[in-house]
Design goal:
Elements lengths: L17 H4 L4 E6 L19 H7 L6 H16 L2 E6 L4 E2 L2 E2 L23 H7 L20 E2 L3 H9 L1 H9 L14 H18 L3 H6 L2 H22 L2 H26 L4 E14 L2 E13 L4 E7 L18 H9 L4 E8 L6 E6 L9 E2 L13 H20 L9 H4 L29
Parallel strand pairs: 1-2, 5-7, 8-9, 10-11
Antiparallel strand pairs: 3-4, 6-7, 7-8, 9-10
Helix pairs in contact: 5-6, 5-12, 7-9, 9-10, 11-12
Length: 445
């Protein structure tokens, strides 16, 4: 095989180095990269020959003077190889400004260079693209009428935020793996708080009985219940785990006593149900729920309470067309809205243990915000009953969506995608955003 080069290169545009271009002729030539750092190039003597000898013999590149002489001669020959010649100097390399070479200082400067008059190849290719058909299939097979489905209140919460996430988690099993936590996980803390409060109100059913025991007796009873709930965890814990459980014991006792003090300050009531399991039909879907607590108030009406160990429990989350926290509206439907006069989160959290929610009026549950058609959250409702009916209607809408297989992307991705773990399988661009840290809420609501 014999190496050869073609005698003529029939191409409209050539990109070649200066040494190869010497001796060639062009219609026009553009010499670029003529900044002071590169032109003339620095001296580069042969390392295997004496430098003095190279300088005496005039070897190109042996000294700075010889490099300058060679660069000047090369530039002159390039400029003479075409009737039209342009030289250019880059302004920056990365962020460092560059100066023009002294060899081009005497060349005339152009005010502006005319742009290429033809159509850009990339633009022409884009405009010639074929028409694409778009098909978005955001649905799964529907459930059978009145089929019992898993998820409970979580089903409606996910469906309200993002039907796609509800479908992936509850129908396809795409559940996020739990992250290791230092100390007691948020879900475990919620479960422990529920268990202690359940055990307490099984023993003390009425507010009058709560008021009848002394402060010391209340502390002793709560201490006993907390130890009983933590006993299985202590039996399986190592030395570090036992120390963490000691800290959790003190935290749990203090928070439960704070919430019981809020109960002592309420209007009279009787606890009718604690951790009651039921099946409720919503929009043709039957789902299982657990009522944290149901109180019978002095006027015979019902207060529905849901315990939360996260400080972010907001009653305002019940008020949107797609409610963010639909547990309590769902519990109201399970009890019967004609009986319910108060709906509340029982927040068990450091620095903010309290009841938050809404009441029909200020008498039945004084710690809650009373209904007032003139105030902000209630302005769209004529009365308390109309508010509860709106909740029921919204729950039915979300349940029907899920039952019919609706798996669309989140209607409001700003919040839904921010805390979602399905970015790897989601079509939403918002899902690719980096999530921000947020303190964990109670997952055992």
């Amino acid at each position: 095989m014999t190496a050869f080069e073609p005698q003529e290169i029939a191409a409209p545009l050539l990109v070649i180095d200066p040494d190869t271009a010497l001796g060639m002729h062009f219609d026009a030539i553009w010499v670029c990269g003529l900044d002071a750092a590169r032109w003339p190039p620095p001296a580069n003597p042969d390392p295997f020959l004496p430098r003095e000898w190279q300088a005496r013999q005039g070897v190109p590149g042996a000294t700075a003077e010889l490099s300058e002489r060679q660069a000047r001669r090369t530039l002159q020959r390039l400029l003479a190889s075409a009737a039209t010649a342009l030289c250019s100097v880059p302004r920056f390399e990365d962020e460092a400004p560059l100066l023009p070479s002294a060899l081009v200082a005497e060349l005339p400067r152009l005010a502006a260079v005319s742009l290429w008059p033809g159509t850009q190849a990339s633009l022409a290719q884009f405009e010639a693209r074929p028409a694409l058909d778009t098909l978005i299939d955001g649905s799964l097979p529907a459930f059978a009428p009145h089929e019992i489905v898993k998820g409970g209140a979580r089903l409606l919460e996910l469906q309200g935020a993002c039907p796609f996430r509800a479908a992936v988690e509850l129908r396809l099993g795409g559940v996020e793996l739990e992250h290791p936590a230092a100390g007691i996980a948020a879900t475990e803390r919620g479960r422990l708080a529920h268990a202690v409060l359940q055990a307490f109100w099984h023993k003390v059913r009425k507010q009058s009985a709560l008021l009848a025991i002394t402060a010391e007796q209340r502390v002793a009873l709560v201490h006993t219940l907390v130890q009983s709930v933590l006993a299985p965890l202590r039996a399986a814990a190592d030395a570090v785990g036992i120390r963490l459980l000691d800290l959790e014991e003190r935290w749990l006792e203090a928070r439960v006593l704070e919430l019981l003090q809020r109960d002592a300050e309420r209007a009279p009531f009787t606890v009718e149900l604690v951790e009651e399991s039921r099946v409720v039909d919503v929009g043709g879907v039957q789902t299982r729920i657990v009522l944290d607590r149901v109180d019978r108030l002095a006027d015979g009406t019902i207060a529905v309470i849901d315990y939360k160990t996260g400080a972010s429990a907001r009653p305002a989350a019940w008020m949107g067309e797609r409610p963010e926290l639909p547990q309590l509206p769902l519990y109201v439907r399970a009890i019967g809205q004609e009986q319910v006069s108060a709906v509340a989160f029982g927040v068990v959290c450091t620095g903010s243990t309290e009841y938050r929610g809404f009441a029909r009026d200020g008498e039945v549950f004084p710690q809650l915000k009373p209904f007032d058609a003139a105030s902000g959250p209630f302005k769209d409702y004529a009365n308390w009953g109309e508010l509860l009916q709106a909740w029921s209607r919204r729950l039915e809408m979300l349940a029907r969506e899920h039952a019919q297989g609706d798996a669309r992307l989140a209607p409001n991705p700003t919040r839904a995608c921010r805390y979602c773990h399905l970015a790897g399988v989601c079509r939403s661009a918002q899902a690719l955003l980096e999530p921000e840290d947020e303190e964990g809420d109670d997952a055992a609501g």
